[in-house]
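Trying the structure run again after the queue cleared.
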Amino acid sequence: MQATTLVYDGSFDGFLSSIFEIYEQRITNPIIIKKSEFQNQLFGEQLNIISNSNHAKRVWDGIKKLLKPNGSKLLYYAFLSEIYGLENTLFKVIKYAFETQKNVISDFGNSHVLSLSKTAKKVSREKHRMEAFVRFQQTKDGIYFANILPDFNVLPLINSHFTKRYADQKWIIYDLKRKYGLFYNLVKTEVITLDLNNNILNEDIFTSEEHHYETLWKDYFKSTNIEERVNNALHVKHVPKRYWKYLSEKHP
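Done. C-alpha coordinates:
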Protein backbone atom coordinates (compact mmCIF):
# COMPACT_ATOMS: atom_id res chain seq x y z
CA MET A 1 0.00 0.00 0.00
CA GLN A 2 1.49 3.33 -1.04
CA ALA A 3 1.92 5.95 1.62
CA THR A 4 0.46 9.43 1.59
CA THR A 5 2.99 12.02 2.74
CA LEU A 6 1.48 15.00 4.52
CA VAL A 7 3.87 17.97 4.34
CA TYR A 8 3.24 20.66 6.97
CA ASP A 9 4.87 23.94 7.99
CA GLY A 10 6.53 22.71 11.20
CA SER A 11 4.13 24.43 13.61
CA PHE A 12 2.07 22.62 16.21
CA ASP A 13 -1.13 23.85 14.54
CA GLY A 14 0.22 22.48 11.28
CA PHE A 15 0.83 19.10 12.86
CA LEU A 16 -2.69 19.00 14.33
CA SER A 17 -4.11 20.11 10.97
CA SER A 18 -2.34 17.12 9.43
CA ILE A 19 -4.07 14.82 11.92
CA PHE A 20 -7.40 16.39 10.99
CA GLU A 21 -6.81 15.74 7.29
CA ILE A 22 -5.85 12.12 7.95
CA TYR A 23 -9.26 11.48 9.50
CA GLU A 24 -11.17 13.80 7.20
CA GLN A 25 -9.81 12.13 4.07
CA ARG A 26 -9.57 8.67 5.65
CA ILE A 27 -5.91 8.28 4.80
CA THR A 28 -4.86 4.76 5.75
CA ASN A 29 -1.09 4.93 5.41
CA PRO A 30 0.04 8.47 6.34
CA ILE A 31 3.51 9.87 6.84
CA ILE A 32 3.74 13.33 8.45
CA ILE A 33 6.84 15.42 7.76
CA LYS A 34 7.96 19.04 8.07
CA LYS A 35 8.32 21.00 4.84
CA SER A 36 11.93 21.80 5.76
CA GLU A 37 12.73 18.07 5.95
CA PHE A 38 10.76 16.88 2.94
CA GLN A 39 12.35 15.65 -0.26
CA ASN A 40 10.21 14.97 -3.31
CA GLN A 41 9.48 11.30 -3.74
CA LEU A 42 8.92 9.34 -6.93
CA PHE A 43 6.26 7.11 -5.44
CA GLY A 44 3.27 7.73 -3.24
CA GLU A 45 0.95 10.68 -2.91
CA GLN A 46 1.95 14.06 -1.50
CA LEU A 47 -0.49 16.30 0.37
CA ASN A 48 0.54 19.83 1.32
CA ILE A 49 -1.14 20.86 4.56
CA ILE A 50 -2.22 24.42 5.22
CA SER A 51 -2.40 25.18 8.94
CA ASN A 52 -5.98 25.72 10.02
CA SER A 53 -6.53 26.92 13.57
CA ASN A 54 -10.12 25.64 13.67
CA HIS A 55 -9.14 22.17 12.52
CA ALA A 56 -6.20 22.17 14.93
CA LYS A 57 -8.45 23.16 17.84
CA ARG A 58 -10.92 20.37 17.11
CA VAL A 59 -8.15 17.77 17.14
CA TRP A 60 -6.48 19.26 20.22
CA ASP A 61 -9.75 19.37 22.16
CA GLY A 62 -10.28 15.69 21.40
CA ILE A 63 -6.74 14.84 22.51
CA LYS A 64 -7.06 16.77 25.77
CA LYS A 65 -10.36 15.09 26.54
CA LEU A 66 -8.84 11.62 26.20
CA LEU A 67 -5.36 12.20 27.59
CA LYS A 68 -6.25 14.32 30.62
CA PRO A 69 -4.86 15.53 32.90
CA ASN A 70 -1.22 15.49 31.74
CA GLY A 71 -1.12 13.40 28.57
CA SER A 72 -1.68 16.30 26.17
CA LYS A 73 1.09 18.24 27.91
CA LEU A 74 3.52 15.36 27.41
CA LEU A 75 2.53 15.12 23.76
CA TYR A 76 3.24 18.83 23.25
CA TYR A 77 6.60 18.54 25.04
CA ALA A 78 7.57 15.61 22.81
CA PHE A 79 6.56 17.57 19.70
CA LEU A 80 8.95 20.37 20.71
CA SER A 81 11.85 17.93 20.66
CA GLU A 82 11.94 18.37 16.86
CA ILE A 83 13.29 14.82 16.53
CA TYR A 84 13.08 13.69 12.93
CA GLY A 85 10.03 11.51 12.30
CA LEU A 86 8.58 11.90 15.79
CA GLU A 87 5.34 13.29 14.33
CA ASN A 88 4.50 9.78 13.20
CA THR A 89 5.10 8.36 16.67
CA LEU A 90 2.80 11.01 18.11
CA PHE A 91 0.15 10.27 15.50
CA LYS A 92 0.23 6.58 16.39
CA VAL A 93 -0.32 7.44 20.06
CA ILE A 94 -3.21 9.72 19.13
CA LYS A 95 -4.68 7.06 16.86
CA TYR A 96 -4.35 4.48 19.64
CA ALA A 97 -6.19 6.78 22.05
CA PHE A 98 -8.97 7.59 19.57
CA GLU A 99 -9.46 3.92 18.67
CA THR A 100 -9.62 2.72 22.28
CA GLN A 101 -11.28 5.88 23.66
CA LYS A 102 -8.97 5.55 26.66
CA ASN A 103 -6.21 7.55 28.30
CA VAL A 104 -3.31 5.50 26.95
CA ILE A 105 -0.53 7.84 28.10
CA SER A 106 0.63 5.40 30.82
CA ASP A 107 0.48 2.30 28.63
CA PHE A 108 4.24 1.80 28.39
CA GLY A 109 3.72 -1.63 26.88
CA ASN A 110 2.97 0.30 23.70
CA SER A 111 6.30 1.24 22.09
CA HIS A 112 4.96 4.53 20.72
CA VAL A 113 3.66 5.66 24.11
CA LEU A 114 6.98 4.72 25.70
CA SER A 115 8.91 6.69 23.09
CA LEU A 116 6.67 9.73 23.61
CA SER A 117 7.18 9.55 27.38
CA LYS A 118 10.98 9.30 27.16
CA THR A 119 11.17 12.19 24.71
CA ALA A 120 8.89 14.42 26.80
CA LYS A 121 11.12 13.83 29.84
CA LYS A 122 14.19 14.95 27.90
CA VAL A 123 12.44 18.13 26.81
CA SER A 124 11.23 18.76 30.36
CA ARG A 125 14.79 18.48 31.71
CA GLU A 126 15.99 20.93 29.07
CA LYS A 127 13.21 23.35 30.05
CA HIS A 128 14.19 23.31 33.73
CA ARG A 129 17.87 23.72 32.93
CA MET A 130 17.18 26.72 30.73
CA GLU A 131 15.15 28.29 33.53
CA ALA A 132 18.03 27.71 35.94
CA PHE A 133 21.05 28.57 33.83
CA VAL A 134 20.01 31.45 31.56
CA ARG A 135 21.93 34.64 32.45
CA PHE A 136 20.96 38.09 31.22
CA GLN A 137 23.27 40.95 30.30
CA GLN A 138 22.05 44.53 30.16
CA THR A 139 22.43 46.27 26.81
CA LYS A 140 23.04 49.98 26.41
CA ASP A 141 19.41 50.54 25.44
CA GLY A 142 18.24 49.12 28.77
CA ILE A 143 17.09 45.70 27.59
CA TYR A 144 18.35 42.57 29.32
CA PHE A 145 19.51 40.06 26.71
CA ALA A 146 20.26 36.34 26.84
CA ASN A 147 21.06 34.01 23.98
CA ILE A 148 20.49 30.27 24.18
CA LEU A 149 21.25 27.17 22.11
CA PRO A 150 19.00 24.49 23.60
CA ASP A 151 18.86 20.96 22.22
CA PHE A 152 15.08 21.27 21.94
CA ASN A 153 12.65 24.07 21.10
CA VAL A 154 11.91 25.05 24.71
CA LEU A 155 11.18 28.77 24.28
CA PRO A 156 7.40 28.19 24.36
CA LEU A 157 7.84 26.30 27.65
CA ILE A 158 9.97 28.89 29.48
CA ASN A 159 7.87 31.89 28.43
CA SER A 160 5.66 31.89 31.53
CA HIS A 161 8.54 31.39 33.98
CA PHE A 162 10.55 34.40 32.80
CA THR A 163 7.50 36.61 32.26
CA LYS A 164 6.50 36.12 35.89
CA ARG A 165 10.00 36.25 37.36
CA TYR A 166 11.25 39.33 35.49
CA ALA A 167 8.05 41.35 35.16
CA ASP A 168 9.76 44.64 36.10
CA GLN A 169 12.30 44.82 33.27
CA LYS A 170 12.47 44.53 29.52
CA TRP A 171 14.22 41.40 28.31
CA ILE A 172 14.93 39.22 25.30
CA ILE A 173 15.75 35.52 25.25
CA TYR A 174 16.93 34.55 21.78
CA ASP A 175 17.37 31.05 20.39
CA LEU A 176 20.35 31.33 18.06
CA LYS A 177 19.73 27.91 16.52
CA ARG A 178 16.05 28.43 15.67
CA LYS A 179 16.44 32.15 14.96
CA TYR A 180 13.56 33.47 17.01
CA GLY A 181 13.12 34.77 20.52
CA LEU A 182 10.90 36.11 23.27
CA PHE A 183 10.68 39.84 24.00
CA TYR A 184 9.01 41.13 27.16
CA ASN A 185 8.12 44.84 26.86
CA LEU A 186 6.78 45.35 30.45
CA VAL A 187 3.24 44.61 29.23
CA LYS A 188 3.37 41.28 27.44
CA THR A 189 5.79 38.77 25.94
CA GLU A 190 5.95 38.53 22.16
CA VAL A 191 7.67 36.22 19.71
CA ILE A 192 10.28 38.09 17.66
CA THR A 193 12.93 37.52 15.02
CA LEU A 194 16.10 39.61 14.77
CA ASP A 195 18.77 40.32 12.17
CA LEU A 196 21.73 39.71 14.46
CA ASN A 197 24.50 39.97 11.85
CA ASN A 198 26.75 37.98 14.20
CA ASN A 199 27.22 41.07 16.39
CA ILE A 200 24.92 40.19 19.28
CA LEU A 201 27.79 38.90 21.40
CA ASN A 202 29.91 42.00 20.76
CA GLU A 203 30.82 43.51 24.12
CA ASP A 204 30.17 47.01 22.75
CA ILE A 205 26.41 46.51 23.02
CA PHE A 206 26.52 45.86 26.78
CA THR A 207 26.90 48.45 29.54
CA SER A 208 30.20 48.94 31.36
CA GLU A 209 28.37 48.15 34.62
CA GLU A 210 27.42 44.75 33.18
CA HIS A 211 31.07 43.82 32.70
CA HIS A 212 31.83 45.05 36.23
CA TYR A 213 29.09 42.86 37.75
CA GLU A 214 30.32 39.87 35.76
CA THR A 215 33.80 40.35 37.22
CA LEU A 216 32.38 40.61 40.74
CA TRP A 217 30.40 37.41 40.24
CA LYS A 218 33.50 35.54 39.03
CA ASP A 219 35.45 36.75 42.06
CA TYR A 220 32.64 35.68 44.39
CA PHE A 221 32.51 32.23 42.79
CA LYS A 222 36.27 31.81 43.21
CA SER A 223 36.18 32.90 46.85
CA THR A 224 33.40 30.46 47.78
CA ASN A 225 34.81 27.54 45.81
CA ILE A 226 36.81 25.38 48.24
CA GLU A 227 39.28 23.37 46.17
CA GLU A 228 39.55 20.55 48.72
CA ARG A 229 35.82 19.90 48.42
CA VAL A 230 35.52 20.08 44.65
CA ASN A 231 33.70 17.09 43.15
CA ASN A 232 33.99 17.61 39.40
CA ALA A 233 32.03 14.49 38.49
CA LEU A 234 29.06 15.54 40.64
CA HIS A 235 29.31 19.12 39.41
CA VAL A 236 29.21 18.09 35.74
CA LYS A 237 26.29 15.76 36.48
CA HIS A 238 24.19 18.64 37.81
CA VAL A 239 25.58 21.32 35.49
CA PRO A 240 26.59 19.65 32.19
CA LYS A 241 29.41 21.37 30.32
CA ARG A 242 27.16 22.37 27.43
CA TYR A 243 25.41 24.81 29.83
CA TRP A 244 28.61 26.47 31.04
CA LYS A 245 28.46 29.01 28.23
CA TYR A 246 25.47 30.60 29.97
CA LEU A 247 27.24 31.03 33.33
CA SER A 248 29.36 34.11 34.01
CA GLU A 249 31.53 32.27 36.51
CA LYS A 250 32.59 29.80 33.80
CA HIS A 251 33.81 32.43 31.35
CA PRO A 252 37.58 32.87 31.12
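The chain has a mean pLDDT of 85. Worth checking whether this holds up in the mutant runs.
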